[in-house]
Structure formats: structure tokens, C-alpha cells
Amino acid sequence: MRKGGARFSFALSTVAGSATGQAIEALLQQDLREVGIEATVKNYPSDLFFASYADNGILYRGKYDAALFSWAVGVDPDDSSEYVCDEIPPSGQNDLYWCDDRLDAAERGALSSYDRSVRKKYYAVTQEELASQSATIFLYFARQVFVTSPDLRGFVPAPATSSNWNSWEWSI
Fold it and tell me: Which of 14, 65, 108, 113 has the largest CB neighbor count within 10 A?
């Protein structure tokens, strides 16, 4: 793929040594090559990749073309820390450096109410903006497998990010 004689090329970055990240990079490179796009790999040690803005981190300083990493969120659909304009580093963790006024207004509207129907309306706008602009491309969702003793009572697989969410109800 060329524009003005230049081949479309960009770097994919993830944590050096991450088997999953590097496997995804290889697959993406292959698929992109088939449509004429060159994707190179430029990986970093995790302490540099995820370092803070003050510590010159790759993500928080925006020193990447495309970054592959995972994160976990809770059950509330609030994505403001990742996407609103005033969360761009060094003020927050919007390491995409992406700012969209419509998304900002929807996130703030959703956070201004506890009413589910109000929040649902605003979060529909948020999802529409994220999908239409491809601010983030979700490649996969990792399923969690929980292995427990058959003697463990009260364990319920996590609805969100931690398998310890109801630990006060456990007994053996």
C-alpha cells in the first residue's frame, strides 16, 4: 500500500518477551503484509513500556505507533480514565492521546447519574464513538479458567477482574 510513492509502514510494540504479544505481532505482520502494509516490531522491557510519564514511559509519552497490551476494567462501563481529553498524560492514563468532544460529553453525562437508563443512553454514544473512530481495536478477550478444590464452598467465578470478589463468602 503506497501513498505519494511511500509505502505504508508502522511499528508494532509490546512488552519484550511476552509470548502472547509477540505471537500477535507475528500474525498481524503477516496479515498486513498480505495487503501491502509493512509492520515492523519494536518491543520494550515492561518497566519501560509501562513506566510513568515522569519516568519517560513508552505508552504514557506516546512513543509508539501501535501498542499491544491488555488491561482489566471493572463491571462499571466507565472508560473515562482511558478516553477523556483531560486524562491525556501527564494528567492521566489516556495513552492514546485521543480526544473526542462527543465522547467526553457522553462520559461526563454517564458519570453524572446513577440512573441505569440515563447511563445506558450516554454509554451508547461512548461505544458509538469508540467503534466509529477505532480508537482502540480489541483483538481478543481472554477467558479466565478457575481451578478450585471441590471442598471450596461459596466460590463464584468473577464477573469482572478479580477472582477474589466474593472471598468473604468462601469456606472449606
Answer: 14
Q: Which amino acid is at 161?
A: T
Q: CATH code for 1-70? A: 3.40.50
pLDDT digits (tens, 9 = 90+) for 11-70: 999 999 999 999 999 999 999 999 999 999 999 999 999 999 999 999 999 999 999 998
**Amino acid code (one letter) for 153:** R
Partners of 41 in beta bridges: 12
Closest CA to 2 of 36, 30, 33: 36
* Residue 41 CB neighbour total at 10 angstroms: 15
Q: How far apart are CA 85 and CA 31, in angstroms?
A: 32
**Residues 122, 76 contacting (CB under 8 angstroms):** no
> Where do you find CATH 3.40.50 in the chain?
1-70
Helix (H, G, I), strand (E, B) or coil at 12: strand
C-alpha cell at 137: 481495536
